[in-house]
Amino acid sequence: MVEAWYMDERGGDQRAPHRQEPHRPVSLEQLRRLGVFHWKLDADNYETDPDLARIRKERNYSWMDIITIHKDKLPNYQDKIKIFYEEHLHLDDEIRYILEGSGYFDVRDKDDKWIRIFMEKGDMITLPAGIYHRFTLDENNYVKAMRLFVGEPVWTAYNRPADHFPARGQYIQFLAQAAQ
């Protein structure tokens, strides 16, 4: 099951867990209130998994590919790792399904604090359009993930500050409504 917590502010190796002391866990319900959704699926049988097929159909995830993030598999690995870890947002939802390995998605809460989400094999996550986030590998330095999109993929990331985009405004409105 996915695990999430508030991050410490110490800096250092981005691949470390960065748990606050005392530990401040974040529940799946707290993530849902941020618009972040999670499923646990059968990564060993992703090609024939009826649960994945159902989710894709219900949410119109019509396009997918698979990316392997490892120094021996991803061209321009060091540059990509830096890009993935830059705080940014997208104009569309970001959907990732971990098929092998593990890593962290970091998202900002309503008070602009970092929440670290540990993802491992079988975890699928949807980050809403307009949420500030970033990704990093953990200390195992390997992940194989399915990337899903509604329609044709849009790869553009807008580094912070990107508050002028309508997707960000809509996300802020969503947070305000969720707080009521």
In short:
This protein has helices at residues 28-33, 50-59, 77-85, 166-179; strands spanning 3-6, 25-26, 37-40, 63-69, 88-89, 94-108, 114-120, 123-127, 133-137, 143-149, 158-159.
Describe the structure.
- With 180 residues, the chain is α+β, with helices and mostly antiparallel strands.
- The protein contains four helices and eleven strands.
- Strands 1, 2, 3, 4, 6, 7, 8, 9 and 10 form a nine-stranded antiparallel beta sheet that branches.
- Strand 6 and strand 7 form a beta hairpin.
- The longest helix has 14 residues.
- The model has no long low-confidence stretch (mean pLDDT 97).
Features of this protein?
single chain, alpha+beta, 22% helix, 33% strand
Layout of strands and helices, then pairs:
Elements: E1 3-6, E2 25-26, H1 28-33, E3 37-40, H2 50-59, E4 63-69, H3 77-85, E5 88-89, E6 94-108, E7 114-120, E8 123-127, E9 133-137, E10 143-149, E11 158-159, H4 166-179
Antiparallel strand pairs: 1-2, 1-7, 3-8, 4-10, 5-11, 6-7, 6-8, 6-9, 6-10
